[in-house]
Amino acid sequence: xxxxxxxxxxxxxxxxxxxxxxxxxxxxxxxxxxxxxxxxxxxxxxxxxxxxxxxxxxxxxxxxxxxxxxxxxxxxxxxxxxxxxxxxxxxxxxxxxxxxxxxxxxxxxxxxxxxxxxxxxxxxxxxxxxxxxxxxxxxxxxxxxxxxxxxxxxxxxxxxxxxxxxxxxxxxxxxxxxxxxxxxxxxxxxxxxxxxxxxxxxxxxxxxxxxxxxxxxxxxxxxxxxxxxxxxxxxxxxxxxxxxxxxxxxxxxxxxxxxxxxxxxxxxxxxxxxxxxxxxxxxxxxxxxxxxxxxxxxxxxxxxxxxxxxxxxxxxxxxxxxxxxxxxxxxxxxxxxxxxxxxxxxxxxxxxxxxxxxxxxxxxxxxxxxxxxxxxxxxxxxxxxxxxxxxxxxxxxxxxxxxxxxxxxxxxxxxxxxxxxxxxxxxxxxxxxxxxxxxxxxxxxxxxxxxxxxxxxxxxxxxxxxxxxxxxxxxxxxxxxxxxxxxxxxxxxxxxxxxxxxxxxxxxxxxxxxxxxxxxxxxxxxxxxxxxxxxxxxxxxxxxxxxxxxxxxxxxxxxxxxxxxxxxxxxxxxxxxxxxxxxxxxxxxxxxxxxxxxxx
Length: 600
Hints:
The chain is globular, with a radius of gyration of 24 Å. It folds into two domains: 21-59 and 94-180; 184-194 and 221-597, Rossmann fold (3-Layer(aba) Sandwich). α1 (65-73) packs parallel to α9, α7 (265-275) packs across α8 (302-319) and α12 (515-535) packs across α14 (589-597). The chain is of the alpha+beta class. Strands 12, 13, 14, 15, 17, 19, 20 and 23 form an eight-stranded mixed sheet that branches. Pfam families: Peptidase_S8 (PF00082), Pro-kuma_activ (PF09286). Its cofactor is Ca(2+). It catalyses: Release of an N-terminal tripeptide from a polypeptide. This is tripeptidyl-peptidase II.
């Protein structure tokens, strides 16, 4: 993943005031015992190949990150909504002079004198042949190959630095971090909607849902959403109005995609023609990160276009005419960073439907990435991640040591984790249930199982501690510490519908299930709330979780049915209150809007 701030070219030459490199004792800074699943070590790396090396410097005040973030995100704080500028963020977390000088002197001793700054001055960048990098880090580089895709990846098993340097750096890349494209959350349903009678009926006509059709000739009702979800279904289910026709230029929502997956403009227009005619011709603003680029070839290939089409078709249909930003991430580590997270703060909401399992990353890597999300929250950006689709098995049905697999970055305490629900197939009067304030949904139980559980790395944050402890006390799961870490950051935080989404790919409608669908939906709700606040001269809502948890009784419909099986178990079960399947439950948009509008 690439979450660095723009480059500031500063070439530095330093003199050595430390012992000669050959006299310095090295200590292991990071290591891994195994490569991620389905990656096989093939051969030593060509020693002449040049690596784009990045050294992440230790930053000041990261231990106070939650304290700082809570001060601008907790509704009981006098500083709620007083988000920081990027200059304040840089100043607060900048590495100390001692750290910079110590690392630069170490590099100088190895003949590395031209170093440029990246990442708000907390990352040092330079290019180095493999042979020299191996000497610098006392390691060996290998080429790994993915067993299925054949993709190649360069990595080592461990790396070491002088003992006096280890306290001054977070991570060095490329080393043992798998920064390849993470996994997509969301799956195509078998067949197309033509295989379902109700879908075929509306295949050529706009599927505009009313609360309840007066007669069969009035068109589809919310009851029909059992078989086919559209934007109007979601508006009916969650009490979402049409977006304001007056866009706010500071209110862009951002969708994150990875190379190898990109939307097709023609499919956007086909979808909009039926479900949001005003948006026909609208396109997201492209922000390229690390060589991110669009690929419009093979428009009917769901694996290439399905994810991006899903995310953009729904987020744009629900929020239009609010600006939409597409952050397209490539795999070119030599990118100059001109499109990187400086642009994130030009948006107020970032939605990502991709991730990996914690066991595929190192603790230092997860901490480094998670802290960047904390900084985005300080700047008023809401960061949302989907929780994956294999239940307690995380991103894929591959449970190491038969242990539940928490999903990263979902487990980062500075992001909002979104799970998935579905309409209860036994519901015979959805409109009546909604009118009575009831819950017509259960945990998703299609081929997708909503990811949920507890982090093995991040500790439980204060904002969710009381509800999680209530769950563990009142609805204790039948598993011990060999399966999950009861003291870890718990997820999801919230859930919304993720089943049977109508998506246009290659000009044809098909169905998609997954937390990949639920995440941009909730992100769209937050974007509309920001629009209302910004229209009144208030700030964006920023980091959501302190409000979501502390005001849960004001807007949540609890989900008490369903589970998320995986790893050879039934997983966790939904229960009254928060649970590790559907989180707090599903939101009522109008009530959630009232909550945020009540906070000055």
